[in-house]
Design brief:
about 40% helix; 7-stranded mixed sheet; 15 strands; 4-stranded antiparallel sheet
Length: about 375
Amino acid sequence: MPKLSALPLSELQLRKSAKWREFPTEILPLPVAEMDFEIAKPIRDVLSEMIKGSDTGYLGPIPELGINLAKFAKARWGWEIDPEQVFTATDVGVGMVEMARTVVSAGDLIMINSPVYHNMNNWISELKCKSYDAPLIKTGLHYTIDLNAIERGYAAGVKAHFMCSPHNPVGTVFTRDELSAIADLAKKYGVTVFSDEIHAPLTYNAAEFVPFLAVSDVAREVGICVTAASKSWNLAGLKCATIITAHPKQLERAKSMPMAVHYRASLFGAVASATAYECADWLDSAIETMDSNRKFLKALLAEKLPTVGYRIPDCSYLAWLDLSSLNLGVNPSETLLTQGKVALNSGITFGPDSGQFVRFNFATSEEIMYEAVNRINSCVK
């Protein structure tokens, strides 16, 4: 498959300065998890036809979304999805919150595994629940599940587990054995596992990713998957995600959600998502491009900033960089923004022990990565 070409630097800056107005035009903004690539032509075409036909109303039933997602999951991972158990929500955050409302009450404990996607804590606050952190085990720059910490949390009364799989920001793809063990513990302690699998299609070796609901009968009983085409096909602004169940108990919970959970999603987002799951060739090109980019970033850091810690991620386009050797202060991201004019996500927002980390989006051009690393280097010099 051919690599994708990123938008030119000047066009990118114009587009992003309009989109992220908090950044002056001289800032190079790389904190948001989206790609700098044009979307797949079939998606552009179907959206254009909708506009031409003035098909801009509310979202109605869209069975093709579940059908196409099921075909994609079967071909990609051997995962059998029942299209009748696919539900639509505005985005993954809304899907997680609305399904969690069917499980938890105010004050309940919800588990996370830090360092983890920062909005999970926002979702927990929205539910008026309390966060219980079972941090990942860090070996060098590789992170894995701590089953002992998870069991302690489950035994302490955790009601739901918000799991990021594959993991954002550390780029780990969990093994079948790890996920199976989590499922068994969840059944033992009566915990519902909410698996956020939004980055799953971007696993570099597709065979390594195991959907939680494909792990075992126990996982299907205790688990709920929330995902979207948004990260993998660059559709986040179109606002559509899916909630997937695989057990009668979880199906009934999904059916108990307010009807508005479906209808608040975007018509454009739902149609674009259904189309995206038929664009595996575009996805493969994107993965090829970002595979090259993740390795280019490794070589670039080795040349320019050899003491920066970076483990090439197993999935997606988010590099988790340890800047502790650079002595950039308590919050390196602030130093990089004010002195280097490059915006990256602050590690402290992902977990209390990650203050010296930043998250770097490499779904862009080599030119922009080179410029960003040079700006980081300028802060050190």
